[in-house]
Amino acid sequence: MSVVRIEHVYKDYLLGDQKVQALKDITLAFDPGVFLAIAGPSGSGKTTLLNLIGCIDAPTSGKIYINDQDVSGRTADQLADLRSKTIGFIFQTFNLLPVLSAAENVEYPLLQRSDVSREERQERVAYFLDIVGLSRFVHHRPNQLSGGQRQRVAIARALAIRPSIVLADEPTANLDHNTGEEILNLMKQINRSFKTTFIFSTHDKRVIAKADRLVRVNDGEIYALGVRSEAKWFLAKQRRATAAATQAQTS
Length: 251
Ligand code: ADP
Ligand code: MG
Known about the structure:
Oligomer: single chain
CATH class: Alpha Beta
Number of strands: 10
Bound molecules: adenosine-5'-diphosphate, magnesium ion
Number of helices: 8
């Protein structure tokens, strides 16, 4: 099973009467639990690709599968429902609501979820703010927090829905180097402990170096796919563990 599968995807934008080909014939599949970077220079198509994976936008042609389900032809409501249960988002500019506290920001996406009770919402808010190290800041508003702390709130908000995929569009671009590194380390730690798939875009070499897998885009096309060597060891270990578990189940 792939958590995300993209088949022959094209995305065109119309700018006046000019057609901009933002993505050209993209075919990709990502394994569940991966910590993957989409790398490329500004304007290469990273945000467009993340928006398509996140079902915020639809391809001009081609197919996208999320957890093996074809998402083309779904209504806006059906896509919103899928997003609210499956996909967490983290943005370059954090996108927190300024009038809400950290806790209220984390709770916000859960308010759309009729299957999550008020009690459970509050438990999740406390739990995920603790995971990102912000238990002491629950009542702070975004303007009372540093950039790194704001991005931690955004990570807690993304996790609160218990997503299978977290998409992060240049999550460290507005942070200084050390803070960016801390945020990346936190994301990786969460990826390892919760097995949540992380797909993030970046043009920063140091961020790329933290990824297990890498997709390079340039001018709307993929020009390299890679597995980092340190990650190879980890992924092999994960595969052996999965194989052992499957064997234990079948024997
Ligand atoms: P990146 O995130 O890598 O900087 P984008 O996905 O934002 O790249 O953009 C890819 C290309 O598509 C660029 O040429 C950009 O100008 C164009 N583009 C992106 N969004 C739009 C839009 N809404 N309308 C027109 N062109 C767009
Ligand atoms: Mg972008």
